[in-house]
Amino acid sequence: MNKIMLCMAVLLAGVSGCSQSDSELPPPQKKTKNEATKVSVNQQVSKINKIDSSLCIFPESPPSAKASTSDFAVYAWQQFVALNWPAQTGQRGVANCSMNLGSPGQTVWESFKTTDEIFLPGAIDPGPWRDGTGQSVLRYAAKANAGLPVEESIAQAVGGWLIDQNNNPTYYSIAVNKTSYDYVRSHQFYNEQVVSQAENVNFPNDALEIKAAWKIIQSDDDTSRFLTMSAQVEVFDDTGKPTGTTRAATVGLVGFHIIYKPAGFPQWVWATFEQVDNVNTSTGHASYYSANCSGEYCDPIYFAEKIGPTVY
Predict the structure, then answer these.
(1) What distance in Å separates the CA atoms of residue 80 and residue 257, rounded to the nearest whole number?
(2) Quick check: is 48 in a domain?
(3) Is the C-alpha dihedral spanning 309, 310, 311, 312 positive or negative?
(4) Is 177 part of any domain?
(5) Closest among 143, 25, 135, 8 to 81, alpha carbons compared
(6) Among residues 103, 105, 102, 133, which one has the least CA distance to residue 117?
(7) What is the span of the domain harbouring residue 248?
(8) What is the DSSP letter of 305?
(9) Domain count along the chain
(10) Is residue 312 part of a domain?
């Protein structure tokens, strides 16, 4: 947890914001809507800065649908803390509340089932929730499973690749909690033919999905600022086509997307966290920002205020 240096963009009510410490925010000459949201979020997040064992329990009840963005920001941080709590040894998705946040070992979300463990060759039954090594994202890393579509490993949900400043693609991994997994398995939605004939796909309440984004760590990256792991990543040729091979790489977490379906929210509740160095140059070169880029599309604020939040 201490290496997951993330800032938050809560994608609710058409507002995108980033919760950083006040010292990291440039002094505004005039408060914009987003800047005002940041201040409010910082004030609310301070309420949960004291990390105690009660926060190891995932918060199932979100604020009212009419609550403020700041209230949802606090709720998202509570989700984040609970998901990054150390997991019980040998139990998927169960927090070990007797351990401290940031302790070595697998976290709750890392013990979830990944798509690699759900969608198996031949569409065979993936088995009970408890089966497998329980290493989940760490084991399957940057989704180098050749049996999965290329789009699941490098394509953004809105289409296209996200290329970092080292000209490497961003890789993605998806993991789900027991509620989501049991629903997929009980309906045989791990089988493409069954899914194609389904008249209705309606996940139950408490279904939860994590989508993690990873960049390839370079020699000049400060690994102490990332959650890192060893991975086998897919290799692509100069035209962007997969070569069918993989290579070993160290990857760092740069994005963390939480999608949760609480009671009363059929549209689910969505929140996204970003690694603080994605566009921040104060600690060195940013992962996705270049000062030499020109035009409004190079300005992150343009997307936040004019285009709106990213839709996954």
Answers:
(1) 10
(2) yes
(3) negative
(4) yes
(5) 8
(6) 133
(7) 6-307
(8) I
(9) 1
(10) no
Reported confidence tier of residue 299, pLDDT bands at 50, 70, 90: low
Rounded to the nearest 5 percent, the helix, strand and coil shares of the chain are 30, 20, 50
Distances (CA, A) of 30 to 38, 113, 166: 13, 46, 34
Is 1 domain-assigned?
A: no
Question: DSSP class of residue 203?
Answer: P
Is the separation of the CB atoms in 142 and 173 below 8 Å?
A: yes
SS3 169: strand
Taking the chain, what is the end-to-end CA distance rounded to the nearest angstrom?
Answer: 24
Give 13's pLDDT tier (boundaries 50, 70, 90).
Answer: very low
Amino acid letter, 146: A
- Give percent of the chain above pLDDT 90: 38
pLDDT category at 155 given cuts 50, 70, 90 is: low
Euclidean distance between CA atoms 20 and 282, whole angstroms: 13
Task: Copy the structure tokens of residue 19.
Answer: 């919760």
Please state, in angstroms and rounded to a whole number, the distance separating the CA atoms of residues 248 and 139. 13
Beta strands in 152-280 (DSSP E): 171-176, 207-216, 228-236, 242-261, 269-275
Tokens at 27, concatenated: 């002094």
Contact 7, 20 (CB under 8 A): yes
Q: What is the pTM of this model?
A: 0.75
Per the CB < 8 A criterion, the answer to whether 260 and 80 are in contact is: no
